[in-house]
Amino acid sequence: MFNTRRIALVAMAAAAVLSLTGGCAPLVIGGAVAGGAMVASDRRSPGIQLEDEAIELRLIKAFGDKFPSDRAHISTTSYNQRVLLTGEVTTEQAKQDAEAIARKSENVSAVLNELHVGSLSTLSNRNFDTALTSKVLAALLQAPDVPSGAIKVVSERAVVYLMGRLTQGEGDAAARAASRVTGAQRVVKYFDYLSDQEVRALDAKPPADAQPK
Fold first, then answer.
1. pLDDT, mean of residues 19-28
2. Cα distance between residue 145 and residue 148, in whole Å
3. Three-class SS state of 156
């Protein structure tokens, strides 16, 4: 059963990657993917998954209203209500303004501001990041002791950001696997660390749609 599930996850990852046209959109194996579908396993509750999607949509609109496209390229990723900002802005003030907007947004618990101040990335840069994300996902799926269903991957300017709810050991294993991927210049871990007992309880819990009503 484990091998069958892993093959299915690989297929979903490939489909998600093929659907991307460029940029550094985050991909997740297990959780919210393109179109808002909830798939496979995720250590967030369905309600938090939906709230993360809502946070991202609110911030995409807010940043679009605030910053002209020739002055900012901001990617927004919310995981467990922690917001990661990646991309580029042309001034330090814009970086601070983007963080302030995110912090004031509804239901955001923390902001991780990784915005680069300088020139905006090119389409070629963004396509490279998309390809890098797909390679990291494939590496995580094949790595032992890595719960790929609980990890979200974001690549920006050849830096790989990992988000998820993992034990310390799982997080270290995931970072090692990602760091070995060709093209990854640096790997940044933004994990919510759980105890082994918490993980066992979460993994043993049946999916929401399988619970009796």
1. 46
2. 9
3. strand
